[in-house]
Amino acid sequence: MHIVADDNIPYAAEAFATLGRVTLVDGPNLTRAQLRDTDILCIRSTRRVTEDLLAGTPVRFVATASIGFDHVDLGYLRRKGIGFAAAPGSNANSVGEYVISALLAVGEARNISWPGCTMGLIGVGNVGSNVRAKIEALGMCPVLNDPPLFDRTNDPLYRPLAEVLACDVISLHVPLTATGPYPTRHLADDEFFRQVRRCRLFINTARGGVLDTAALRRAMAAGRVDDAVLDVHETEPQVRPEDVTGMTYVTPHIAGHSLDGKVDGTRQIYEAVGRFLDVAPVWPGPASLPPPAHRELRIDIGRTDRPAALAAAVMAAYDIRRDDAAFRRLLATRPGADGFQNFRKTYHVRREFPATRVRLTRPDPELAAAFQKLGFRTA
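The structure assignment produced for this chain is given below.
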């Protein structure tokens, strides 16, 4: 049993060695020749998996350690009888934390107090649901839009798009699809932005193709959108400095790149491969993960109000501004696909909020509950 895995899948060698012989490869530059004796292929979203890659190879199963799978030609896999698995929800918490950091960074820069503001979430799957819980901890009011979920449930919780477009913040959390009753390619286009009343912040952490970036620029120039945070890009991995000019914060598709989320993705596809092979999983996972930037944060309640306390902890655990600055520096010297992919491959170790404990200087049940809803442990 020969398993080929992207070398950017953490612990892939240790996990898949329990199932067969493992070869680690540079995922984005994987070639068909490298698959000539491969049974199982494990990749990330940086490599398109199509007939061009797989034709004539013995690959029987493909797994992607990502929640999205628009980079995989599922039709071809079905026609050839090749099994498939993804890692749904593995990076949902990581993306949720990224969105919260973006909100707080823009709030500080623009002197915006978010409690009481509305936030429209387009797509309420694993990621959208996670974001919803976190923004409620900030005192924001979520407005949810998910037509497929509404069709299945008829739940009035899911609101028409027009209500979302009237919100203070709009955030995209949908898969990229070109067909079906609700295609999402260029969902956010000129018509979308013409219906926006006054959006203080627009966020896209879904897929680059969900947004028509030129339409967003026109909306910003017209004053319908004040700020924009983009983690995904229409042209990625080909991104140049001019592609991100005017955007408030930009990052190279790393919103879901916490180490915790990536390890969960490894676990999910390892178990999926085991099921395909009818082999019981024996890999126990890593014995431990590197420590977070802060194992513990002490919050002096007497010196700060609740919103400021939440912001201090979030930005200490993950500050989007650092990734934005590092990415812009990279674009100035190494634009294009090479720099974009290298940033992702060498991304710093980022732990999620549950790895950090918040210690309050005096009891405050309401604040403690808000920290817990964001994901922090409290003491």
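Interim note for the steering committee: The chain has a mean pLDDT of 96. The radius of gyration is 21 Å.
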